[in-house]
Write a structure and sequence with these properties.
65% of the residues lie in helices and 0% in strands. The protein has a single domain, classed as 434 Repressor (Amino-terminal Domain) (Orthogonal Bundle). Helix 3 packs across helix 4. It contains five helices and no strands. The chain has 96 residues and is mainly α. This is XRE family transcriptional regulator. InterPro entries: Cro/C1-type_HTH, Lambda_DNA-bd_dom_sf.
Length: 96
């Protein structure tokens, strides 16, 4: 059995970079990673979803959705979650 790299597997299942299916997969993966980072930060601060939601004037179900799939976040909401809710600092990197 031949071992394949992660990029080879993504190419096989989602198409090569630049194709619509691959682009959609990469965006959804990034959203999921954001959700996981928010969950990890919240848990590290020993906060419940309800406590985080209260700090940013949202419902607990909204925080759950964000943590589970990254949700469809605006930049403003992401800043609110990280800075107001978690007391952190959001850094964004643009790569070209």
């Amino acid at each position: 059995m031949e071992l394949k790299s992660l990029d080879q597997i993504k190419d096989e299942y989602f198409g090569v970079k630049g194709t619509p299916d691959r682009d959609r997969f990469e965006r959804e993966l990034e959203a999921l990673c954001i959700g996981v980072q928010i969950r990890n930060a919240r848990q590290k601060k020993e906060m419940t979803q309800a406590q985080l939601a209260e700090r940013i004037d949202k419902k607990r179900t909204f925080i759950s959705k964000v943590e589970n799939d990254g949700g469809n976040l605006t930049l403003k909401t992401l800043i609110d979650i990280v800075e107001r809710g978690l007391g952190g600092k959001l850094n964004i990197e643009v790569q070209i």
